[in-house]
Design brief:
Elements (H helix, E strand, L loop, with lengths): L6 E4 L15 E5 L8 H10 L1 H11 L1 E4 L7 H11 L15 E3 L2 E3 L9 E4 L11 E8 L3 E2 L4 E3 H11 L1 H10 L1 E8 L12 H5 L4 H9 L3 E6 L2 E6 L6 E2 L5 E2 L4 H4 L13 E5 L7 H14 L10 E5 L3 E5 L2 E3 L3 E7 L1
Parallel strand pairs: 2-3
Antiparallel strand pairs: 1-2, 3-16, 4-5, 5-19, 6-17, 7-16, 7-19, 8-18, 9-17, 10-12, 10-15, 11-12, 13-14
């Protein structure tokens, strides 16, 4: 479908129909021969049509740009800058990441054959990013997709399935805990050390920076226990629609997440009550049923509204795979 703009909207086999008829995600291809389009033309198109692109993002929750000349991390950085969104520092982040160039970082550096559960980026902190960019520098041969799911759908289905628990989440929020070592643990998707998280090896400075995010640090022999203040677990969109805005699955430590293998985090209700494993089992099932997973292609740029869309990572079956990321306020 052409748009009268430098973009055309296409539907892919992986798309699932939404109640309002809006594609999720919206997939945009060049309106001209992709072999002739220049990176600068793509950047100009973004700047010239930014209000339209932002309206698409608001309606759909995610936009996948495919077939544009984005080859290198520097190209990706230029695309991110063309949108003009303010950059968000990764201070306090749980995932191991490395800066590649300017606003571009590696995505989670944990082993690619391991799953990362659905989450809103940094929802365990009081000021998470509002938007996320992902870029496929190396296309996976098999597996390694980044499934996404609309958060309001998860809220509604969980409210129907576990109304009492959801009511407690709305009332008390969630408290997150993490054991952070002195050094990064590359085997864990939440394996950043306290030094990496707070960009210092000075414990006093780390405590100050953590406190600004409502995090208490309890020092141990080889690291620190990071304990958050209770944070809201349910978000509200501008329309009034409620969303499943939290990091419950990615931090939960219990039988339902044994296959994921994360053991340095935990989560409880803000009043100290534990999270029922049956709730987690149903949540995992619902998220998998409702998600959309479009296989990556080299050069893809995925823009996500982090306030309304959860994302995850499926295990890589056949390498290579290199996905880069950028976070925006």
């Amino acid at each position: 479908m052409t748009t009268g703009k430098p973009f055309q909207v296409v539907e892919l086999p992986e798309h699932k129909p939404q109640d309002d008829g809006v594609l999720f995600p919206v997939v945009l291809l060049p309106n001209t021969d992709s072999t002739t389009i220049q990176l600068t033309a793509f950047e100009d198109a973004i700047r010239d049509h930014k209000p339209w692109l932002e309206s698409l993002l608001l309606k759909s929750g995610a936009i996948l740009f495919r077939g544009f000349p984005v080859i290198s991390p520097s190209d990706f950085n230029s695309v991110v800058k063309a949108f003009g969104f303010p950059e968000l520092s990764y201070a306090g982040g749980a995932a191991p990441r490395t800066q590649v160039v300017d606003r571009v970082y590696t995505a989670n550096e944990s082993p690619l054959d391991k799953e990362i559960p659905f989450h809103h980026e940094m929802a365990y902190l009081p000021n998470p990013p509002t938007k996320l960019f992902f870029f496929c520098e190396e296309e996976p041969r098999i597996g390694g997709e980044t499934p996404i799911v609309l958060s309001h759908i998860i809220y509604e289905k969980m409210k129907d399935k576990h109304p009492d628990f959801v009511a407690k989440m709305e009332e008390h929020g969630l408290t997150y805990m993490k054991i952070a070592g002195d050094d990064d643990d590359p085997s864990s998707y939440t394996g950043s050390s306290w030094k990496s998280a707070y960009k210092t090896d000075d414990k006093n400075i780390a405590e100050e920076r953590a406190a600004k995010q409502g995090i208490k640090l309890e020092w141990r022999g080889n690291g620190a226990k990071m304990i958050s203040s209770p944070l809201p677990a349910i978000g509200v969109e501008e329309s009034g629609q409620k969303t499943w805005f939290n990091s419950l699955i990615v931090t939960y430590n219990g039988p339902a997440t044994d296959k994921i293998g994360n053991r340095n985090t935990s989560v409880e209700l803000g009043n100290g009550e534990p999270v029922d494993d049956n709730v987690v089992k149903d949540l995992l099932k619902i998220m998998e049923e409702e998600c959309v997973a479009i296989p990556w292609k080299k050069g893809d740029v995925l823009l996500i509204n982090n306030l309304t869309v959860l994302h995850s990572r499926r295990p890589l079956i056949k390498p290579p795979r290199r996905i880069l990321a950028s976070l925006c306020k």
